[in-house]
Write a structure and sequence with these properties.
152 residues; alpha+beta; 4-stranded antiparallel β-sheet; 3-stranded antiparallel β-sheet; 3 helices; 22% strand
Length: 152
């Protein structure tokens, strides 16, 4: 007696260079906030502990952001039923069932390597592979394997 095992959910997270950009932007913003708070504290002769408090909260925010980007944020989720894309601007259709997908093709709009999932209703989902952590060829093979399982 053999039963088909359900395909596990595959999550693709944000690529480390892209995470570094988010963290860098946060650090610049934190520095600007600290400069503003320092100017306010100095000009209003407030307690300097306010600067330390803002810095401490900023560091906690940095730790929280890094943790969320590293372990919680899923950019692409592939399931047995379909896929969902998050945090990608101009992705097009952000989710669909595999039965709605006509094919998956490689494309390079504006010189950026992408995997394009073309849907039967004319919509498409464009996923820049440089945003996805892991090997781009393995990612494309995984998407195509999900498509083939849904077709059979």
């Amino acid at each position: 007696m053999s039963s088909a095992q359900p395909t596990p959910v595959t999550d693709y997270r944000l690529a480390p260079p892209v995470m570094a950009r988010f963290v860098g932007a946060y650090l610049v913003l934190l520095a600007l906030v600290l400069v503003a708070v320092t100017v306010v504290v100095a000009s209003a002769e407030l307690n300097a502990d306010l600067i330390v408090l803002v810095l401490g909260l900023g560091i906690l925010g940095l730790i929280g952001l890094a943790w969320w980007l590293r372990s919680r944020l899923v950019v692409v989720r592939l399931t047995e039923a379909g896929y969902r894309v998050r945090m990608i601007r101009a992705a097009g259709a952000t989710e669909a069932r595999w039965t709605e997908v006509e094919d998956a093709v490689a494309a390079a709009p504006s010189g950026i390597d992408c995997l394009v999932l073309r849907l039967r209703d004319g919509r498409s989902t464009t996923i820049p592979v440089q945003l996805v952590a892991g090997d781009k060829d393995d990612f494309a093979r995984d998407v195509r394997a999900h498509l083939q399982r849904a077709a059979s």
